[in-house]
Amino acid sequence: MKSCSQPLPALAEAGLPSLAVERAGGEGERVGERGASAIASAEQDAAGAGREGGSMTTTPVRQTVTVTVNGQEYTREVPTYRTLVDFIRYDLGLTGTKEACSVGVCGACTIELDGRIAASCITLAVRADGANITTIEGVADGDTLHPVQEAFINHGGFQCGACTPGQIMAAKALLEHNSSPTEAEIKEWMMGNLCRCTGYYQIIESIQAAAEAK
Description:
Blueprint: E1 21-24, E2 27-30, H1 31-48, E3 51-52, E4 55-56, E5 62-69, E6 72-79, H2 84-91, E7 110-113, E8 116-119, E9 132-134, H3 147-154, H4 164-177, H5 183-189, H6 200-213
Parallel strand pairs: 5-9
Antiparallel strand pairs: 1-2, 3-4, 5-6, 7-8, 7-9
Helix pairs in contact: 3-6
């Protein structure tokens, strides 16, 4: 599988959900087109968080965020610059979601946000207020693993495991959209999820096996 430094190709034009789409005011936007602006916005929020009445303070602006994660509702007060991945990991204690590149191109932080997968490292927590989120912890049904999880175990779809949560979230989304993808479709869809151990063949085999098991 070829790797790239850019998110997934223009799947939105074909009506496909992808890692390159995140929730933004109820309207999907491509991360590849707005990754830099999202990061810049977060930095501006951070820089201006304590600016009140034209004077700087040391106290960041905070906002109450309510989200439903894996079927459970959470309400937390967080700084407006808090990224969603940090909110999930540190405010909610759900550490299955990983952060690697921090710029929305590697796929390690992939979550499901209102039915579409998104890069949580460049999404602000306050923009997810009211959203329904699924993380890797919510994929299994109790003690019963999802077919994609079982396939990754049985077919060696992971090595160090750092990218595995994001790989599984993306693969799950693919099979929910296309239950019988070709190898080319799998490669295209998973292009936004990088594996630094270069275990791509096993990842493809795992997704194919999960498709056959469904």
